[in-house]
Write a structure and sequence with these properties.
NPHP3-like_N; mainly alpha; Nephrocystin 3-like N-terminal domain-containing protein; two-stranded parallel ribbon; repeat; 10 helices
Length: 243
C-alpha cells in the first residue's frame, strides 16, 4: 500500500504536477472478512491506519465486511480505529426499511419509464414488498430482478401480482429470507412445469438435471468416468448456451 498509494501521492504533492484534490476521493475495500484468519484481517486494518490515515492523504476509506472479531475489536471502544471510523452496523442496529422502500419506488418507476406503462403498481404494493423483505435488501433486489425480467409481462405487472401472493399473509410476521425462499421455490416450480410440458424424455428428474448443470457450470466437470461438458449439459436441458 505504501508503494502503490502513499509514495506516489507524496511525489505528486512534492512535484506540484497534480493537485491531490483532483484524485478519486474514496478507496473502497469490500469483503475484508474474506481475508483468511483474524491475524490477516487485523494486519490489513493496521496497514490502513498507518499508511492511509496517518499520512494526511486526501482519501476516505470505505470498508464493507461481516463483523468478524478482529474487525469488531478495531472499531469498538479501545480499538485503534474507533475514534477515526464511522461504523454503520447493518445487521443489528441499522434499519434498512426506508432505503428498501425508496429503492423499490425508484426501480419500479424506472421500469415504468422503460416500458411506457404507468400506474400498474400502488403504494400498498410497495409496502407489502417492504414488509416481506424483513429488512433484508437482498430480498427487495431479487424481487425487482424477477419483476423486471424482460421475458415476463411487458410492464412487470403480472409478476408483481404473482409476487404479492407469495408474501406473508396479513397478521403473519415475516421472517428473514422467507420471501426469497418462496420466490426461488416458485421460479423452479414454473421452470419445472414448462420443462415437463415440452420434455420428450418422460420421467426425467428436472431438479436433478438443474443441480447437475449448476455443479458443472460453477465447478467444472466432476472427476470420474461419467461427466458432462457444459455445452452438452446445456443442450440436454434446452437452455441458452453460456456466454
Amino acid at each position: 500500500m505504501d508503494t502503490l498509494i502513499v509514495r506516489p501521492v507524496k511525489r505528486l504533492r512534492e512535484g506540484a504536477t497534480l493537485d491531490p484534490a483532483s484524485l478519486p476521493y474514496v478507496i473502497l475495500i469490500d469483503g475484508l472478512d474474506e481475508c483468511k484468519g483474524e491475524d490477516r484481517q487485523a494486519e490489513v486494518l493496521t496497514v490502513i491506519r498507518h499508511s492511509l490515515l496517518e499520512n494526511d492523504l486526501p482519501f476516505r476509506i470505505f470498508i464493507a465486511s461481516r463483523p468478524e472479531l478482529a474487525i469488531r475489536s478495531e472499531l469498538e471502544p479501545g480499538g485503534h480505529l474507533h475514534k477515526v471510523a464511522y461504523h454503520i452496523q447493518l445487521s443489528d442496529k441499522y434499519d434498512a426499511t426506508g432505503d428498501i422502500r425508496r429503492y423499490l419506488w425508484w426501480r419500479l418507476q424506472d421500469l415504468s419509464r422503460r416500458v411506457g406503462h404507468f400506474n400498474w403498481f400502488t403504494a400498498d404494493d410497495i409496502e407489502t414488498l417492504v414488509q416481506a423483505a424483513s429488512g433484508q435488501f437482498i430480498s427487495a433486489a431479487t424481487a425487482i430482478k424477477y419483476i423486471s425480467e424482460r421475458r415476463a409481462s411487458p410492464s412487470g405487472s403480472g409478476r408483481l401480482k404473482l409476487m404479492l401472493t407469495w408474501t406473508p399473509h396479513e397478521g403473519r410476521c415475516a421472517r428473514p429470507f422467507d420471501t426469497l425462499d418462496i420466490l426461488y421455490a416458485n421460479i423452479l416450480l414454473e421452470a419445472k412445469e414448462a420443462y415437463e410440458a415440452v420434455d420428450a424424455q418422460v420421467g426425467d428428474d428436472f431438479l436433478l438435471l438443474v443441480r447437475a448443470y449448476q455443479v458443472n457450470a460453477t465447478s467444472g466437470p466432476a472427476p470420474g468416468p461419467v461427466t458432462f461438458e457444459i455445452d452438452r449439459l446445456t443442450a440436454i436441458l434446452g437452455l441458452e448456451q453460456p456466454k
